[in-house]
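Hi all, long-time lurker, first post. I run a small reading group and we've been trying to get comfortable going from sequence to structure in the token notation. Rather than ask abstract questions, I figured I'd post a concrete chain and ask someone more experienced to write out its structure so we can walk through it together at our next meeting. Sequence below, copied exactly:
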Amino acid sequence: MLKKLILGILIGSSLVVAQSKESIEKLIGSMFIVGFNGTSINAHSQIIKDINRYNLGGVILFGKNITSPTQLKALTTKLHSYSQGDLLVAVDQEGGKVQRLSPQNGFKQYSSAADIAQNKEVAQYTHMAKVLREMGINFNLAPVVDLALNPQNRVIVGLKRSFGSDPKTVATYAKAFIRAMNAQGILTSIKHFPGHGSSLGDSHQGFVDVTRVWSAKELKPYSYLIDEGMLDTVMVAHVFNKHIDSRYPASLSYRTITGKLRGELGYNGVVISDDLQMRAISQHYGLKETIALAINSGMDILLFCNQLDANNVVSPQKLIDTTYALLQEKKISLHQIKQANERIKRLKSKL
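-- Answer (accepted) --
Happy to help. Here is the structure in token form:
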């Protein structure tokens, strides 16, 4: 009888542990947005299995996922219908050189941020937002609020992704963008905190140090928009600035995210990373260290696009397993994960 009782307790304990692990994995999963390959899915597709097993926060779509409006609508309809929660379906749709829904796959060409500001024409953002809504996309990783401070900057200024060099002007056009998106039920993300417009390098390609060129002026668009309560999310860049953090790039920096963005500027919403597979990160940090630093910095959503390198695709299972191992090793805390989930839940309640 005693043996049966002890066995029952042990079995019960193992079941509790197993359920606890599963629930924690879902909390972890909600903190990831991932990219995947393919233009069509079904109930047995790996991405759908991962979404439902881990309660993934969302997916991000690129040109490789889009061939036409009809195809895209079918893809997002299945993503939403097969997922069990409020799945974020994200794209970068800024206009100009950066728009995943483009003329190449059957969509309208929109003006760049620089041209919008020059022509004082924001009406097309309403059209853009309506198209995104019709296509089943609910998270636009835009607008850019970097200041056009360095004429030699290729990744922001050279591509005309900035509304200009004046913080108030940039904030004004960013508000118009955000309002147009929100009116159609689409979330936004201002980027790239704490400022990428003065840089010389491109963090897609490698390490970018803005220590000598960055100025506090680049924080002003964020400050204006935070004070007006306009923001859904803030995306953090991979730029390095030793005046803010002498050791880590912004996206892995507690001093940048928790200290400056949350502490000094008073932002209490969701913080999302830029793609953590960009070479500015992947060339200097392994996956485990990247995830640990990102979560410890105060990051809520970690973005793994699986877009830049076909040989560096990381599965949701590996992301969740790695994060769970960090939790077991006490290198991150469950409290941090739950805090992030609370912010993500508030964000998704806007959908």
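A couple of things your group might point at:
The chain has one domain: 31-348.
The CA atoms of residues 1 and 7 lie 10 Å apart.
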